Amino acid sequence: MTTTLAIANQKGGVAKTTSVASIGAALAELGHSVLLVDLDPQACLTFSLGIDPEDLEISVHHVLTKGVDPAEVIIATDDGVDLLPATIELARAEADLLTRTGREHVVKTVLEQLAENGVAYDWVLLDCPPSLGVLTVAALTAASGVLIPLQCETLSHRGVGQLLDTVHDVRRFTNRGLEVWGVLPTLYDGRTNHARTVLETIAETYELEVVEPPIPKTIKFAEAPAAGRSILATSRSNKGAQAYREVAANLVTRVAGTAKRG
Ligand code: ADP
Ligand code: MG
């Protein structure tokens, strides 16, 4: 069984991409097969896993809008995860898809196509762009769960309401089974009470689970993308890397629990 998780928040800079790369690498360390899908035209995920988007002739854009077989585009990375890479061309996909029938289902269809061809992953993590446009809606339509990375600062709750409105629309129209797995506190400064208070307020206001543990703010994250590897490889014992390992283990436990309950 594949678990497809969208990592979404229309705010930029909240560590969506970092979380996708790090949780993906942590799941791979646990022996799970993982596909990461870069759905952001800025291609930060692609770049951070050591692939220069400018070297790519075909990318996720061709898969979503031109019917190219995803298996031809997927790349195995040094972090033990497979990647469906993006390039800046994906910026056009948003406009291209806008007038297309079935646009909300493009990501779902691509994942189904892989499964039909016998390519099965334990996990598919979808790195969403910083907007609530077509690509984010398509990711939410393909996912069984959504994880919301959140930097716990004063105004972060405003975006959460809008994102949850989109989730409700997706549930109504395109994906009944979508579940909100919770917020993942990122860039967390546990030394201040402020971060904790903001997190509690958001969790209570929107009745959201908090995925543990919070990811601490550490300088090592800034260095990893330039090395083309996730922080789990560049700073193995860093406390941010450890926190992502614990988050990944908790996600695995959650899936195991759901499977048992049926
Ligand atoms: P998003 O995908 O939401 O835009 P990114 O994952 O690209 O966010 O992260 C934004 C910036 O924050 C990047 O420069 C990244 O290296 C940095 N960053 C992410 N997580 C942490 C962390 N825990 N501590 C310090 N810096 C971080
Ligand atoms: Mg990003």
From TrEMBL:
Segments passing through the bilayer: none
AAA domain span: 3-179
InterPro entries referenced in this protein's UniProt entry, alphabetically: AAA_dom, DNA_Partitioning_ATPase, P-loop_NTPase
Name of the molecule in the record: ParA family protein
